[in-house]
Write a structure and sequence with these properties.
The complex is a heterodimer of chains A (330) and B (68).
Chain A: H1 2-7, H2 11-20, E1 22-27, H3 28-31, H4 37-46, E2 63-67, E3 73-77, H5 82-100, E4 126-134, H6 146-149, E5 151-158, H7 160-165, E6 176-178, H8 181-191, E7 208-221, E8 224-243, E9 248-267, E10 272-285, E11 300-308
Antiparallel strand pairs in A: 2-3, 4-5, 4-11, 6-7, 7-8, 8-9, 9-10, 10-11
Helix pairs in contact in A: 2-5
Chain B: H1 16-23, H2 41-51, E1 55-60
Classes of the chains: A alpha+beta (330), B alpha+beta (68).
Chain lengths: 330, 68
Amino acid sequence: MAGRAQVFSDPEVIRLLSEHFIPVGENCSPLQWQQDAKGEFFRLAAEQGHYAGRTFPTSTRQGYYVLTADGTVLGAHNVREPRQMEALLRTSLRRWELLSAGAEHAALDLPDYTPARPNRYPEGGLVLQLAARDLPRAEDTRPDDWRKAAWNLDYAWFTADEARALVPEARVVGSVAEAPWPVMRRLARFHLRDFVRGETPVWPEEAVSLANLGATVVDVSGPAVRLALTGGAILNWEWRWHDAIHDEDRAMPSGFSATFRGEATWDDERAAFTSFAMVAAGPRFGASQYNNRRDDLGPAPMGVAFVLAGDEPRHRTPPHAINHPDYFAG
Amino acid sequence: MTATIDSAVTADSTNFRTVLSYILPNPEEYGWLRIPWHTDLWEARRPAASEGKPIFLWGMNGNPLGLT
């Protein structure tokens, strides 16, 4: 998280990327291995880049690549420093200008292909952008570095039917709808994780001891139904993993007790939410293998914000755990 | 957000928007989100070709535009 705040917040980097490139952000971990045309295209680029052929210490192909539409790499590295990023962009742009001099821009006839993983974006459904951050604490012993400033993003997807089920059938002030279990399971297991400082596993089903969300009609004005959102969730689990560096097995009790509070507006004519703002906040404790929490075991307050995602292309970013078999489980 | 803000969100709390604003990234933090990111490398080839621009791919383990 710290890296992207640093390098892509630089004004000149922002300007160059916005004006002279088609910027794309993707999870390259599945791209490295997926057997379809897009995976092959990524591997074509990656094997021209900074980690080409590497298998030790890892086979990662993370980094930044500048490439043409047909897959010729003009520059690549994995450095987060803004001036080095600017140098990569300028050098790549110069190579592009030499390569494309005199050529006419034309539409690219991309062949259809069968994706290894289907696009599960819920057209007509409810797409929420999430942010997670530690909340203020009475005694703060966190180091005054990225750990204190950490925050993270994610997305949550709900189908059109699931979105509709959040709205009370009776459009009358005071009527209540309880979120159905598939929605609550997804909210609790996948989106009440401690991802403030990094990635963390999906809570198993057994970790959820409470999860409910009620929507109460507070106002009806034409097609607009305004809702108050209240509820809570309690999750507890002991994460277990093997520490390969020390060759030791680790076990870490973890949990999050969250209160939901929010407001939303459903539009009957559009059959969609036109506003959605909710917070899940409360004490968390513990750590998992990769979420960088072992120096901050708590208990300490954490908040997860849920707001309606916008229309820009980046808001089609899939949820972190979209490939988990239970994500859209009924 | 100062230490005087009550970060506790209860069922009848009226402070959830204050907590929401605290959690959501502030303008200094989301500068990188002003870049017009695409989310699909394959589909990005189309505008790259029609607009005559190179693709800049940011690849991470975890989605760089989401949870990472």
